[in-house]
Amino acid sequence: MLCPDIVRNTIEDNFLGRGVEHEVGVLRDRNRVIKDYDSRDFDPNTFETFYKPTSSLFHYLTDLMLANHLFGDDVRIEGFYAERESLHVVTTQPFVEGKHPSWEELVMGMEAQGLVHEIPDSSSARFWIDAGPAGNLLVTDVHEDNVIVGRATRLLHPIDVHFAFSSRTERLKVLETLGLS
Questions:
Q1: Regions of the chain where pLDDT drops below 50
Q2: d(Cα 121, Cα 109) in Å, to the nearest integer?
Q3: Contact 24, 11 (CB under 8 A)
Q4: I need a surface site. Which of 49, 60, 140, 148 has the fewest CB within 10 A?
Q5: 97-133 per-position pLDDT tens digit
Q6: How far is residue 1 from each of residues 90, 133, 138, measured CA to CA in Å?
Q7: Contact call for residues 105 and 51 (beta carbons, < 8 A)
Q8: What is the pTM of this model?
Q9: Which of 72, 62, 45, 148 is nearest to 105 (CA)?
């Protein structure tokens, strides 16, 4: 188990951003980004429900595995800690020097990299990707804040996308087919 104070201080000292599910810092000496994922579904003080693109910790963790496999990412689980009846997952992934694309750049770039926009000419943040023997998979949450255009390569790097499945059984079958189980 990781020490919550060390994780919080590391992110605070190297703060990059915050989203619904993560607080993010950049570790420039390691050329990586650190993310603190809070698995809570609601705030225990206000009872406000958090919208999250994943419905469970299992989905979140298997989405990381799929992103590593399908996008060549290098997301690493650094550890866990518990705080206020919530499990936190601390991950790192490569820091990509670049900028977030406009919606038009995102769609054109993803399509140029082989993905197919689920609903062309719409603002749907969902794309199909060819997962080889597992067939086509639906990648979700592919919006401007979750993709970076690499300064050096001009390639698009999804940094926090998810995958949609009709059931846990289907997700497990895909993981097995891809050799990730």
A1: none
A2: 14
A3: yes
A4: 49
A5: 999 999 999 999 999 999 999 999 999 999 999 999 9
A6: 10, 36, 33
A7: no
A8: 0.91
A9: 148
Question: DSSP labels for 52-97?
Answer: -S-SSHHHHHHHHHHHHHHH----EEEEEEEETTEEEEEEEEE---
Residue type, 128: W
How far, rounded to the nearest angstrom, does the alpha carbon of residue 52 sit from its chain's CA centroid? 11
The CA-atom distances, in angstroms, between 6 and each of 21, 129, 142 are 19, 38, 31
Question: Which tokens belong to 127?
Answer: 């794309």
Given this model, what pLDDT does residue 52 score? Answer: 65
Produce one character per residue of 107-125: b if its CB has 16 or more CB atoms within 10 Å, e if not. bebbeeeebebbeeeeeeb
Three-class SS state of 175 = helix
Q: What residues contact 16, with CB distance under 8 A and at least 6 apart?
A: 24, 25, 26, 33
